[in-house]
Amino acid sequence: EPGTAPVVLIAEELAPSVLEVLGTEVEIRHVDGADRDALLPALADAAAVMIRSATQIDAEALAAAPALKVVARAGIGLDNVDVAAATERGVMVVNAPTSNIVSAAEHAVALLLAAARQIPAADATLRGGQWKRSTFMGVEVTGKTVGVVGLGRIGVLFAQRMAAFDVTLIAYDPYIQPGRAAQLGVRLVSLQELLRESDFISIHLPKTPETVGLVGAEQLAMTKKGVIIVNAARGGLVDEAALAEALRSGQVGAAGIDVYAEEPSTDSPLFGLPNTVVTPHLGASTAEAQDKAGTAVALSVRLALQGSSCPMR
Ligand code: MLT
User: Fold this and answer.
1) Which residues form the D-isomer specific 2-hydroxyacid dehydrogenase NAD-binding domain (predicted)?
2) How far apart are CA 255 and CA 230, in angstroms?
3) Mean pLDDT across 158-169
4) Side by side, which strands form the sheet with 92-94?
5) 89-127 burial, b if ≥16 CB within 10 A, otherwise e?
6) Among residues 56, 114, 178, 179, which is most buried (max CB within 10 A)?
7) Which of 60, 193, 263, 313 is catalytic?
8) Among residues of the chain, what percentage have pLDDT more than 70?
9) Catalytic-residue membership of 288
């Protein structure tokens, strides 16, 4: 009824700053967005829904939300939001495109180094009471070729950080200006060249119909034997079954993986392999990134509910 505070449905855990920014003129409700049976009825009178990557705001969810004005993604990727269906319904979609780029790039570097030196396996062995120095023979990063697949905001930050290791940087990105890559000290190559030349490969692409399955069995067969692969972008860009097979055969030496085709995932074929370092989609999970993402989208929600146009950042 008129005069009632608009309902903001928080469907995933967000930074505490979100509540401060939303203020007192909205009614805050919480739901577990991954639980469809809870989410759909909770959307019935929501004016805004705030999510991270675990909540699917698809056509069905939108249809269950007749009062919805804004979908707020506290992060970057919009692969879990049907933006076209939202637009058709006049529902605004906002995200925070730079909030977690540093955190994502740092996590990719962490996975790369952890995979190169098998840190989690060595840690687990030692905690298990075994002092095994000869089992864990790593490789150096310095002097090697690092291939960056996707030289967008995160790919660039990753490349800049890896440059400190004195590596040769190559990248595949059909959209970047060659001048920009040269400025960054990165040589642009085709995907095939990148696969053939790299000692380390890190993926930094959004999930779209074009990028799903980009690195599958055929591509893994082209890599240098023993290559180390990192994916902190999206699951499905590197085919998990094909990667597991390549890790088993030794074609891929090690992998650092943060994202999975299905999430949450507790039974990826990668989890049983010794030469993998795996994390549960933690690329954006830092205090700083969550604070930035939460604050930015909470402000957009407030403005959207006030009827003003939204600042994009
Ligand atoms: C993103 O696209 O921003 C990430 O998936 C971050 C998140 O986990 O929310």
Assistant:
1) 109-283
2) 6
3) 98
4) 27-30, 7-10, 46-51, 70-73, 92-94
5) eebbbbbbbebbbbbbbbbbbbbbbbbbbbebbbeeeee
6) 114
7) 263
8) 97
9) no
All structural domains of the chain, each given as residue ranges with its CATH number in brackets, are 7-99+287-306 (3.40.50.720), 101-278 (3.40.50.720)
Reading the block at residue 130, the tokens are 């075994």
pLDDT-above-90 percentage for the chain: 96
pLDDT digits (tens, 9 = 90+) for 25-71: 999 999 999 999 999 999 999 999 999 999 999 999 999 999 999 99
Residues lining ligand 1, Cβ inside 6 A: 52-53, 75-77, 100, 281, 284
